[in-house]
Amino acid sequence: MRLIGTFCALAIFVQSVVAFPSFLHNRDIDLSHLSREIDSVLARVPAEDLAKLRRDASLQKRSTFSESQLIDVSGVHAYAPPTAGQTRGPCPGLNVLANHGYFDRSGVVTFTQSVSALTSVLNLGIDTAIALVTYSIAIIGDPIALTWSIGGSYPSSIPLILPRPGGIDASHNNYESDASVTRGDSYLHNGDVWSVQLATFKKLYALQDGPDADYTKDVLIQHRKNTFDYSVQNNPHFFFAPFSGLVVATAAHNFVAYFFANHSAEKPDGYLDQKNLKSFFGITGDTIDTLVYNYGTERIPDNWYKAPNPYSLVDVVTEILESIQANPEVGAIGGNTGTVNSFVGVNLGDLTGGVINSQNLLQGNNIFCFAWAAARAGLPTALSGVTSLLGNVLNLLDTKLAPYLPALACPAIDEFNLSLFNQFPGYTQH
């Protein structure tokens, strides 16, 4: 079974410039430290909770409410914006964890601290958190120190051997993508993919109005279509990659509705009003015309209660499928060819050697399998050293998490025909 690679980097959040290909190409990274860290984290999770991943890995479950869902934003977890030398990046969920001290406030985070914060504050499933963090370390972090950056680059643990890990900021087309929730396309904003583009945020904000505004999953699915259409219509170098676009950018829209919603006894399923939406994106202002973005100021609202149910890897992909089924165009892979409104979709059968095609992508487990294969291939930047490390990391994740996840039978995708991407100028801009 090759399940875990499917999910390895879904969401968030995140990431990845290839920071050390020559080193990885010539040497094997010892993953025993990472293996022990994963074992240690899993050992602290109650057996019953792990069992639920397999038998109840769906959001279709009864929501309950408890005061234990309240997140502490006082004392050591009081909000503080980043100071000089502290990095923040494209993912608001990661930025708030650093601004409240659940992540190291520097923005450079360890494996254990990352998993702990993601599960306890945002209620990611333990499977989702381990996969996300492990993949992030492999792609944009330091595999020796087991650290990664939520924003810019930072010194490596072996400066004369490992160059500086790049961080999420430098991951365009590998993890960060065009047509994101509020950040701008790289080509349109001179490479700035970490700042909120206020015009994009306002389009999301305007989808709801009045005292009953609630940014539900359906609202974010509509916003997913809008951001995709905007990039097609305005960015001649728009590129939508198999992993960073189809999977990560689509999942990130769904994350907003699930992870930022507040909860109460009256609304145990959650609600995301305009006040809380602005808080999580670092936006101030009372009306749409007075909104202002303040870089790095994302914060958890006072009296904010997290979701009652962990968000598993199966939940991630289930909601991606819902987005594509609602708006099939956002399931395309391809890009503009140098002018606006020139989007060309790549034939999935040609890309995968006929294993996955547009007719069967949404059938059964195929989108899981396709995402896994794309992650393993390191698309779109398939550098041999990094994909070798990714293969080892994904094998490790398979071994560690497979017992707790539903079984899948994935068809083998032996290789991707990357030459199909050469027609897209945005493909080479990573």
From TrEMBL:
Question: What cofactor requirement does the entry state?
Answer: heme b
Keyword vocabulary terms for this entry? Heme, Iron, Metal-binding, Oxidoreductase, Peroxidase, Signal
> What organism, scientifically named, is this protein from?
Sistotremastrum suecicum HHB10207 ss-3
| Gene Ontology MF: a single term | metal ion binding
Q: Cross-referenced PANTHER family, in alphabetical order?
A: HEME HALOPEROXIDASE FAMILY PROFILE DOMAIN-CONTAINING PROTEIN, STERIGMATOCYSTIN BIOSYNTHESIS PEROXIDASE STCC-RELATED
Protein name, entry field: Cloroperoxidase
Would I find Heme among this entry's keywords? yes
Indicate the segments forming the Heme haloperoxidase family profile domain, all copies.
Answer: 75-318
Which range is the signal sequence, renumbered to this chain? 1-19
Q: Tell me the protein family, please.
A: Belongs to the chloroperoxidase family.
List the InterPro entries hit by this protein, alphabetically.
Chloroperoxidase, Chloroperoxidase-like_sf
Q: Name one Pfam family in it.
A: Peroxidase_2
